[in-house]
């Protein structure tokens, strides 16, 4: 079945540091890939998505590229801010899955001054 | 600004009591999901509806949990009887159903069973 593996947290960085959160997936067919972010006490919000191989999703300075050859969708940001502190979830949706998401376990990011 | 609305936001109840959580999906969305989030298990899919019909509830404990969509504007998740191990945050999400589109999440109901 489908699965998503992402790096364990927490990840602690200083402000303006470079961020990478690794995500790999297993799926049949050609899934869509997503990064969701959860701020404390809130629901999940879509951060970015990519729907086919080599697509790059981007939003708020975050980027992720759909790499079919390595089945990966790593999240990156060049310079993190304290306000980026949150839990980040990698997820996939199978073709025809109708928005049904398979999530990774989440990675907590803490950004310090 | 269209959003998924969940009520209540917080619920504290005693073991054995019935709990009902409600969700109003985004107008026009035809897929609805219930997820449970705990520290130990992360995000678990409990139930999945398309056009109000249940497609997958394999993640839901059948003996005490039930999920329904009485109409297109309301989804409910009931627990009867509730147990302390049901304490978690329950999220509802809805989506337009097409390939390549995403699901939109509500803010969740934090349930504490004492």
Question: How do the strands and helices of this protein lay out in sequence?
Answer:
The complex is a heterodimer of chains A (113) and B (114).
Chain A: E1 3-6, E2 11-14, E3 19-21, E4 23-26, E5 32-38, E6 44-50, E7 56-59, E8 62-65, E9 75-77, E10 86-93, E11 102-103, E12 107-112
Parallel strand pairs in A: 2-12
Antiparallel strand pairs in A: 1-4, 3-9, 5-6, 5-10, 7-8, 8-9, 10-11, 10-12
Chain B: E1 5-7, E2 10-13, E3 19-24, E4 31-38, E5 42-50, E6 53-56, E7 65-71, E8 74-79, E9 88-95, E10 104-105, E11 109-113
Parallel strand pairs in B: 2-11
Antiparallel strand pairs in B: 1-3, 3-8, 4-5, 4-9, 5-6, 7-8, 9-10, 9-11
Which range best describes the helical content of chain A: under 10%, 10-25%, 25-40%, 40-55%, 55-70% or over 70%? under 10%
Question: Biggest interface, which chains?
Answer: A-B, 22 and 26 residues
Radius of gyration of chain A: 13 Å
Order of helices and strands of chain B: EEEEEEEEEEE
Write down how many β-strands of chain A occur, each being a DSSP E stretch of 2 or more residues. 12
Give unreliable regions of chain B as ranges: none
Provide an overview of this structure.
By secondary structure, chain A is mostly beta strands. Chain A has no helices and 12 strands. In chain A, strand 10 and strand 11 (102-103) form a beta hairpin. The model of chain A has no long low-confidence stretch (mean pLDDT 94). With 114 residues, chain B is mainly beta. In chain B, the strands form 2 sheets. In chain B, strands 2, 4, 5, 6, 9, 10 and 11 form a 7-stranded mixed β-sheet that branches. Chain B is globular, with a radius of gyration of 13 Å. The relative contact order of chain B is 0.34. The A-B interface holds A 32, 34, 36, 42-46, 49, 51, 89, 93, 95-101, 103, 105-106 and B 4, 31, 33, 42-43, 45, 48, 50, 56, 91, 93-108.
